[in-house]
Amino acid sequence: MARIRGTTRLVGLLGWPVAHSRSPQMHNAAFAAMGLDWAYVPLPVRPEDLEDAIRGLRALGFAGANVTVPHKTAVIPLLDEISPLARAVGAVNTLRAVEGRWVGENTDVEGFRRALQEIGLSVQGQTVAIIGAGGAARAVLAALALEGVGEVFLLHRSLDRAHRMLETLEASFPAAGLRLPPVHPIHLEDPLPEGIVALIHTTPVGMAPDVEACLWPPDRPFPWGLQAVIDLIYEPPRTRLMALAEVAGIPAYNGLGMLLHQGALAFTLWTGQEAPLETMRAALQELDSS
Ligand SMILES: NC(=O)c1ccc[n+]([C@@H]2O[C@H](COP(=O)([O-])OP(=O)(O)OC[C@H]3O[C@@H](n4cnc5c(N)ncnc54)[C@H](OP(=O)(O)O)[C@@H]3O)[C@@H](O)[C@H]2O)c1
């Protein structure tokens, strides 16, 4: 538990809701391990109050914040500066105050990339499938582009929406030096070709409390040659999709790796210090066993 003093620097999490978040435990454990006089607090903010909340952070002298659902895009026009990567993805998940100016960054992209590297999966020149086309899918697509992915199948319930997302990214990626790989939007139920190395689920379906929900029917076979199923959900730590993959003999990973690495990158942006990764990982895992 952080000891709050008159000198304590504050950061927090803007979202609605935020009660489920593991970020306060992760960051407060990191501040304590590094002996930093900092604290991380949950900041539940309704969508209609976001502008007031950002003004409040400025007035209260916060050093920065994380931003989560549903504010990652809505926060952009309220800031003084947006990093090229956050602008390319159209989503901000980290804010930092730099000499009174509020800068929006995106650490989800590099966070997912590091999580991918950590599980030892190379996607360079390979084919990958993504389920969903929201903010997390855009970050995953940027990370895959940085990793040199060959091509991507984008499974979505609305082909129109998937095409619209791709048009936006085609226009926004080059400004951040990103090359959009060939992406094929298909319906959720459409068959997937063989040779896909990773299936990445980026929708909230299956997240607590609806833990039985799953967009992958139990009798649908996974594509031949699949090496990993990655679910960005971490609550529950083993989703129904992950369980189906494991039954089929395919290694499955939850979203804790991405959460850890995006958090570590935010920690460094705020404090200028390298994050104590293993302390943060242990704090996240402790919550699973408590
Ligand atoms: N592990 C991490 O660090 C991390 C980081 C970021 C996000 N996440 C997780 O990723 C998930 C998505 O976040 P997000 O920011 O991308 O949300 P988002 O921008 O709201 O996008 C959600 C996507 O899921 C689709 N979707 C929602 N309900 C669906 C359903 N019943 N059937 C089919 N598709 C459905 C949406 O489709 P429509 O476009 O048709 O609405 C949209 O494409 C959340 O569970 C979040 O917690 C995890």
TrEMBL record:
Protein residues bound to shikimate: S21, R22, S23, T68, N93, D108, Y234, Q262
SDH C-terminal domain mapped to chain residues: 255-285
Pathway note: Metabolic intermediate biosynthesis; chorismate biosynthesis; chorismate from D-erythrose 4-phosphate and phosphoenolpyruvate: step 4/7
Cellular compartments per GO CC: cytosol
InterPro entries: Aminoacid_DH-like_N_sf, NAD(P)-bd_dom_sf, SDH_C, Shikimate_DH, Shikimate_DH-bd_N, Shikimate_DH_fam
CDD domains referenced in this protein's UniProt entry, alphabetically: NAD_bind_Shikimate_DH
Gene Ontology molecular function terms on file: NADP binding; shikimate 3-dehydrogenase (NADP+) activity
Domain Shikimate dehydrogenase substrate binding N-terminal: 13-95
Entry EC no(s): 1.1.1.25
Reaction equation(s) it catalyzes: shikimate + NADP(+) = 3-dehydroshikimate + NADPH + H(+)
Keywords for this protein: Amino-acid biosynthesis, Aromatic amino acid biosynthesis, NADP, Oxidoreductase
Stated role: Involved in the biosynthesis of the chorismate, which leads to the biosynthesis of aromatic amino acids. Catalyzes the reversible NADPH linked reduction of 3-dehydroshikimate (DHSA) to yield shikimate (SA).
Name of this protein: Shikimate dehydrogenase (NADP(+))
